[in-house]
Amino acid sequence: MTTSVIRELTATARAAAHGPYAECACPARPAVLADRADGTVVRHGGTVAKAHAPDADREGLAARLAVAAHPALASVLLAPLDLPAAELDGRPVTCWPHGTPVDPEAPQDAPWEAAGALLARLHATPVEALPGPLPEMRGPHKAALAVDRMRRTRPPEAVAAVVEGAWSALPPWARAESAPPGPPHLCHGDLHLGQLVRHPAPHGPWHLIDVDDLGLGNPAWDLARPAAWYAAGLLAPDDWLRFIGAYGAAHGPAVPSDADPWPVLDVPARALTVQTAALAVAKATAARRELDEAELALLDACDRMAAVPPELPAGAAK
Length: 318
Prior knowledge:
Elements: H1 3-18, E1 31-36, E2 39-44, E3 47-52, H2 58-68, E4 86-88, E5 91-97, E6 100-101, H3 112-124, H4 139-153, H5 157-168, E7 185-187, E8 196-198, E9 206-208, E10 215-217, H6 220-231, H7 237-249, H8 262-287, H9 293-307
Antiparallel strand pairs: 1-2, 2-3, 3-5, 4-5, 6-8, 7-10, 8-9
Pfam families: APH (PF01636)
GO molecular function: transferase activity
Protein name: Aminoglycoside phosphotransferase family protein
């Protein structure tokens, strides 16, 4: 975004925090928390303003905001501030209370149990109790966008072939080409530790944030990124067990409570591995640099995946 747009978004956050005319006595200066094509986020005091992507589906976003504000999800999703709809430079703008994020410098304190329990409660929320109509969860669509982004950067053929091989081995639903299997559940669509904050800050309970990809879909997708990291050796086994154990203890419906979860998680975990690898390759190619150790681990995981067919859940058609 341009400096002028960020300045206007900061003014929006300030007005939401104090009203349009009140004096500001906040001890900290406004801060840009994120500035990407799909969203720019600015904090002023205890308020955060977000400019969503220019091509955001307005009706879908309105439905997602209504879900985030619904009392049934008050302890799961951070609710938006109740303000009139606004736009900035052709981008819808929403405002939110500020929460304390996960500390990236303290991985040993990562709230894996909270993430698992919150997802279980999100997935178990009766869809018929929520305002609608709800859009589809955008997880598979984002995976397809990541592969397309990689293609447009024109990486070395040998590198691209590894990612493409793993991508082509996935079933159509995981490539956003058909409907997902099973009954639809309310899903987050982009779960990672950056989507958790404590609210009220700094020591309140954990909540999920960022509803841009929220919607109906296969709940296993929300477990797939930690599963993919675990399979690629990027997430410690103890952390994986903390996460999946908390999900099961909270009666999450995505995986069976009395059987191996991996047949359910295998396909979405593969898809998230491909998505992450494709983005890594795209960024490295654009920056004209070599892949780092973690990125090479993802590429190696894609190579192994292409050689082994995906698992199918028990009872699925072969």
